[in-house]
């Protein structure tokens, strides 16, 4: 059974359509990465699928519960962690846990048991009387996640969970997510980091209220719009990349080329072999130190899809 | 097993239908915040004591012992200049002295000196008795006495004028009536409810009304705006807490604090300043609850609109200033231009001022005051409804 089903979700604010017929399915135990530029409708979709915001039309089912028919049922079944780890800094670890236990309706013995279990799982017992504001970034994150999971939800929404935290804490959080997803918990994660997107088992990309990509990272890399037939990608390593880029673009078989750090990512006709390419580059005065075939990365995919969508929208306007 | 499950389902259903769901959790959390917020506690418990001491003990609105300079020329004809005045002029000045309003601190020797004392601000009142004072009295004519009053302080000027005129009239009457005959009309004024015209009796019941504003309006407004700033409010909306549970959970701890504050103020007022409470304390607490409810709701309304604590602070001021100036706390409402008088009807503190002075000073009962409580409740419910609507909009 799918953990989250979105069917033609539409949300209008007055005449503005924020979300325009978005459909996707998230299977149980997946880490679902939901990407898109700011203001593209990401947050609106999350609000609809957490039971906060009524749908204009369409259908959303979360853990078997319809978001329109029983929004409170949905809230009870999900956990949510916002960008700033919504902890109360002046409350202690234990008090934060108690508060979340209460707000999800756990009482007396159940609550006590659950709190103890959570503290044990996260090895946070020694810090239980410390105020949350004095915890380090990594512990804060663990506590925030524990709070969001206090009521044992099978689905967790994380809204940019790693925005503004250090790389080590970021890595640790992702390790934790995969550990939990292995136990059957489904994650709905938004992020702007491409390396995080690469780690998701399922990705969707929303742009101006429309879903323009949906699949695993690998299937997205292979979609034809991004790698048109008759083309191939190479990574060209060279000394002076700026000059090299300008010159490489003059070659007739070159479709597009961009700088990537100290190398050039080039899309060209697939009739050219690497040695031929090296020869052609020498002719325009560029010496390639290394040339190797390249899979498009996710950034390429999203940039390409966004350009195409923008072009489509321009045409539609005219 | 089956029975247990049934019970659990029923339990769950009761929980999900409760419109105040989440109240307990929010109340628990908010109480913890409040307990650790030393600024709030200080605001609620220490500031009132200090303000009461300032207003109750230091400020006396009754005009007493006004510094007065006298130029008495009436005796110059008969004596050397070392003793001023004549017998009758000294009798008149004694009347001034014993009125408690004037304190004669100096005798001037010339018009210039008299004027100088007034201009320099040493004297608020100058009395000049002319050289022909005695002669006029003996001839049965009208003896003139000039009384100069410094008008830069209106309450001092007013009081001095009234007392001076009264002394003049009284003295004239005494001289006109045959011995043993009493004036035809004898007015015996009696100040009710505050017989000694004590300032604390007038100020403190009003001050209580104003002091309660801080905790109820400002602190509640802050409590939600802080969550907005931290981003925790967003998190709360995704939990099963209901808007009513959230609002009541936020309001109640501050209501509790305001209640403690009110009891403390009443006790301090009664014991330290000896202000008698003529009516029922229970009724005062009950009607005070209506007032607190109105302002807690206004606090909610502010927090539903404000996005930062600074913003909330300014909006709170927009409620507090009218509560001080347009509620009859300092300036009597009856003397206000009609537009301000009309505005005072929309200031909750106006009604509480009636309630607190009514019960404490006049011993008024529910029958006299219910209309004030009703007005407060109407405003409170209105504010809460708008706040609830704003919160709903905020989620979307």
How does this model look, in words?
Chain A is built from 11 helices and 14 strands. With 318 residues, chain A is of the alpha/beta class. Chain A has 2 domains: 220 residues, P-loop containing nucleotide triphosphate hydrolases (Rossmann fold), CATH 3.40.50.300; 65 residues, Alpha-Beta Plaits (2-Layer Sandwich). In chain A, helix 3 crosses helix 4, helix 3 runs parallel beside helix 5 and helix 5 packs parallel to helix 6. Chain A is globular. Chain B has 2 domains: 235 residues, no CATH class; 111 residues, abc type-2 transporter like fold. Chain B is built from 15 helices and 4 strands. In chain B, strands 2-1-3-4 form a 4-stranded mixed beta sheet, sandwiched between helices. In chain B, helix 4 links the parallel strand 1 and strand 2. The longest helix of chain B has 32 residues. Chain B is elongated, with a radius of gyration of 31 Å. At the A-B interface, helix 2, strand 6 and helix 3 of A face helix 1, helix 2 and helix 9 of B.
